[in-house]
Design a protein that fits this description.
CATH superfamily of the largest domain: Hypothetical protein af1432
Number of domains: 3
Shape: globular
Order of helices and strands: EEEHEHHHHHHHHHHHHEEEEEH
Number of strands: 9
Radius of gyration: 22 Å
Oligomer: single chain
Largest sheet: 5 strands, antiparallel
Distance between the termini: 41 Å
């Protein structure tokens, strides 16, 4: 039996939470069974001091699980993965952050690679509501988007992972401020403006304190608000690295899809058009808009028949997505969503609708059940 020291797995442990693996002593004898709870910090410290071990076979890669799980399990895996990433960001702890981030990011990247449509569906349907978690969810949306675009640009697996982590951590120093600014109706105060301008440097400092030594990662976080024409901040530089350029565009695009107190969320086609107008001809912008398309999964559409539907996948052309009908043509909510293609005139998409409050929803379970 190959083992790993419990001390190296502290980032996976939470007091009074179920153990994800068995804990053994140096002779392989069981000390605590999977599912048991460590109630006190002193108990954990005693196990570490005793040299407690974990069977490596029980540490099966969560990324492997995401790659091999049956399709019907993907919505649950997405929910668990996003929750784990959210906890890692919101409960940032320098001592365990790097390990926790690596572990939480791995299944997310595997899920994005396995089903890009379902990944985009998370962004469009798991909205960044105006609450205290707004900043965290915005980071998640930008990270998923950055990894999708990096894949479309044929970046290496290592650079796709790095893009995901840069987007996830670039606003580490201002997650709470993001939520506050999204909710407040008045312009930022001088103190808030100062915090905004300095957050790239402060995020880098937090990552360094957590043990991040990847210079490309740190440079991209520092430069993620810089622009090639020198109009960005904090340094107004023009030699912006590719990673920073990519995550900035992912951040700008997903910001347009999220509501704020002074602005409603934009429909995907309007957000894409705005990106092109602001950044005409840039290959990263072109890749981003092509990846999401005119009708990205999770967006609401009105069909020629009058029915309300939600996009669930890419169809044979960019103007003919696969959709799930949520209502009848007369507007009556269907008992169960009905998947149809939109290639024929009767079921063609007539309009892309702005994000709808109170509209019938399509859960992730229903999304995969429509296959």
């Amino acid at each position: 039996m190959q083992t790993a020291a419990l001390s190296a797995l502290r980032h996976r442990l939470r007091l009074d939470a179920a153990l994800p693996f068995n804990v053994r002593d140096a002779q392989g004898r069981l000390l605590l069974a999977r599912g048991a709870r460590i109630a006190e910090q002193a108990q954990l410290e005693a196990l570490v001091a005793r040299g407690a071990l974990v069977d490596i076979a029980e540490l099966r890669s969560t990324a492997d699980a995401a790659r091999t799980a049956p399709r019907e399990a993907l919505p649950r895996l997405w929910s668990e993965t996003l929750a784990k990433l959210s906890d890692t960001l919101a409960l940032h702890d320098a001592a365990s952050f790097r390990g926790a981030l690596d572990e939480a990011a791995a299944p997310a990247l595997a899920l994005v690679e396995r089903d890009p449509d379902l990944a985009i569906f998370q962004i469009l349907t798991q909205g960044a509501d105006l609450d205290t978690a707004y900043g965290v969810r915005r980071s998640l949306h930008a990270a998923i988007t950055a990894s999708l675009v990096a894949q479309r640009l044929a970046w290496s697996a290592a650079d796709v992972e790095r893009a995901f982590k840069v987007a996830l951590t670039m606003n580490l120093a201002m997650l709470e401020l993001q939520g506050l600014l999204a909710r407040q109706t008045e312009p930022p105060t001088p103190e808030q403006r100062s915090a905004l301008r300095t957050h790239p440097m402060r995020s880098v400092q937090m990552l360094q304190a957590a043990g991040v030594r990847d210079e490309d990662w740190l440079r991209a976080v520092l430069q993620h608000h810089e622009q090639e024409d020198g109009s960005g901040y904090p340094a107004g530089r023009t030699d912006v690295c590719e990673l920073a350029s990519l995550v900035r565009r992912a951040d700008v695009y997903t910001a347009k899809l999220s509501a704020r107190s002074r602005r409603d969320a934009l429909a995907a086609d309007i957000a894409g058009r705005a990106m092109f107008m602001q950044d005409p001809g840039h290959p990263m912008t072109q890749a981003l808009v092509k990846e999401f398309g005119i009708y990205p999964p999770g967006s609401y559409v009105r069909l020629a028949s009058g029915a309300l539907a939600i996009v669930v996948g890419r169809g044979p052309s960019i103007t003919a997505p696969l959709v799930a009908c949520l209502t009848t043509p007369e507007g009556k909510t269907l008992a169960a969503p009905r998947r149809i293609a939109t290639g024929d005139a009767a079921n063609a998409v007539a309009a892309l609708l702005a994000p709808r409050h109170g509209a019938p929803r399509l859960a992730g379970d229903a999304f995969v059940a429509l296959e």
